[in-house]
Amino acid sequence: MRVKSVIKYQSHDYIKAARGYYLTFIGITVFFGLILRGRGTYTIGGYEFLTCIFLFVVGLSSFKEFFLMMLQNSISRKTMFISKLITILFMGLILAVSDRIIILIGKLLSNISENIEILGFYDRVFKSRMSLLNPVVSNLEAIFITIFTYIAVTLVGYFVGIIYYKMNKTLKLFVSIGVPATLFVLLPLFDSMFFGGNLSKFILKAIQFIFNGKNPYNLLLVCVGVIAVCIVLCWLLIRRAVGKDK
Amino acid sequence: MQINFDNERPIFIQIAEWIEDAILAGAFPEETQIPSITEFSVNYKINPATALKGINILVEEGIVYKKRGIGMFVAAGAVKKLKEKRKEQFYDNFIRKLVDEAKRLEISKDEVINLLERGYDHEYRN
Amino acid sequence: MLGRNGAGKTTLLNIITNRIFPDTGEVLIDGIPVKENDDALKKVYMMSENNFYPAGMKIKEIYRWTKEFYPDFDTEYANKLADMFELSLNKTVKSLSTGYNSIFKIIIALSVNTPYVFLDEPVLGLDANHRDMFYRLLLEKYSESPSTYVLSTHLIEEVSNVIEHIIILKKGKIIKDESREDLMSYGYAVSGKVSLVDEFIIDKNVIGIDSIGGLKSAYIMGQVPKGNLPEGLEISKMDLQKLFIKLTDN
């Protein structure tokens, strides 16, 4: 019974955030659609990418406040976490379906008007796959894969959020600067110095594997892997997380 | 209704004494209801268990009794009982202390008696 | 529950309510281990000095969610108390003063109706009127409900008549755990000339000594001795505050 209450509380927050996100998106689209009328094209390519960023941020920011509020209301960490996973699953499902609808509407609009072009990320990357299947099946498949992508992205954000909660201020600052620095400066540097560019070749290959235009199930596989790893790591962190003073 | 609790004696005894005083003064006539445990507790900011303990002393002595589901009432004959009890305690509570202090101050027995008379006169004058 | 700053009051309460974990040992509530156990946890509510509620949330929303997590929460009563304390339900947590930050949580604690309610420094920042109101409401609630209320405080004088049972913590250890009556009945002070007092206390459990000039007061744990005292010595009761100070002095 408590799981139900926790899901209710959690989804209340998520729904509020998602509503804001969609309203902003629609608002911006309508705004640019209007001012660009006859003068240019408003293009959003890879729309799901936006949602991914949104979900990452939602995941990132939804740990601390929620965790403390649940502790205050005598909810065990186990119940919190199970409810969290269920909420994230539902969120992924709902957003994947809504986004697919938006993309289909976008396609429709692009056919009517020259000004607006809303293209799905999935549709672009897996173009060859989609052209093979009939539209209903291909769109259902897109939804299915997108759900897993969204869950994976949210969980990664959530995981980072927990790590941040557990770190003190200096460590936080260190990681915030250190991780991007490693990714974008040190790694390429090491790559050229020690690996003779093999590292970047490997990364490129990995990306090609994941976003193989003919086979979206590689992406699915990676997402499932990420989800599994995140669930294990998050639980290990939450299990021992304590209510901090401030 | 104000009780100034002192630190010398347990609060429940002071509560019992306060109710006794009130009964003697006629504030709670016989066969009328006295305040409830909760009222005592909330009014004097004391634990309800303390208030209950105080009232229970009076129940045991037959000064007040409980009417089930209504509350506590002053027993018939309570005033008489209380006066007798207080008279018994009068020697311990007042005379002994008076004599002790008089000895300490080296006031003679005759002087004490004189003072007592003065006290009575003083009271009558008022 | 009494203890000096840093004695471990909040730490203990945090362990009891599953907010932090003990290094060793376990906490049982009605015989059930409380650690990560929803069935045991739903029997407790803790009002903490630190705020665990979302800063941007309105008080009325907090009350609504509290009802969700604690079905026995009495919303009507909470609204009545908010009215008495003049707490505006439309304010957010972060916009409240220290006093009202305590008040909105006090109101939850009094309305939540769990079998065990823990209040950590409940009157922090409250003015005298509100403190008075709080103690009265607490006693009223306590008289009428079967719940156990645990107050953690260092304002001893204020609570000394309100409480029924006393637990004293000193440096993370429980040094006293008994009824208020019992604790109060066997602490006393004996004062007089130094030589007389010294002689009197030889076989007694002395917990503290004050001396001014040739006079000395010794604070003793134990029953007040019956029978006559040596001439020149005087015995007085210790109030809870004094007793506490003497027990927890270094």
TrEMBL record, chain A:
It comes from the Bacteria. The chain crosses the membrane at residues 20-38, 44-63, 84-105, 142-165, 177-197, 217-238. The keyword Transmembrane applies. Keywords: Membrane, Transmembrane, Transmembrane helix. This is ABC-2 type transport system permease protein. It comes from Herbinix hemicellulosilytica.
UniProtKB/TrEMBL annotation, chain B:
It holds the Pfam family GntR. CDD domains: WHTH_GntR. The keyword Transcription regulation applies. Residues 9-77 form the HTH gntR-type domain. SMART domains: HTH_GNTR. The keyword RNA-binding does not apply. One of its GO terms (molecular function) is DNA binding. PROSITE patterns: HTH_GNTR (PS50949). InterPro entries: Tscrpt_reg_HTH_GntR, WH-like_DNA-bd_sf, WH_DNA-bd_sf. Keywords: DNA-binding, Transcription, Transcription regulation. It comes from the Bacteria. PANTHER family: GNTR-FAMILY TRANSCRIPTIONAL REGULATOR, HTH-TYPE TRANSCRIPTIONAL REPRESSOR YTRA. This is HTH gntR-type domain-containing protein.
Automatic annotation (TrEMBL), chain C:
The keyword ATP-binding applies. The keyword Iron does not apply. Gene3D superfamilies: P-loop containing nucleotide triphosphate hydrolases. It comes from the Bacteria. Signal peptide: none annotated. GO terms for molecular function: ATP binding; ATP hydrolysis activity. Residues 2-196 form the ABC transporter domain. Keywords: ATP-binding, Nucleotide-binding. PANTHER family: ABC TRANSPORTER, ATP-BINDING PROTEIN (PTHR43158:SF5), SKFA PEPTIDE EXPORT ATP-BINDING PROTEIN SKFE (PTHR43158). This is ABC transporter domain-containing protein. It comes from Herbinix hemicellulosilytica.
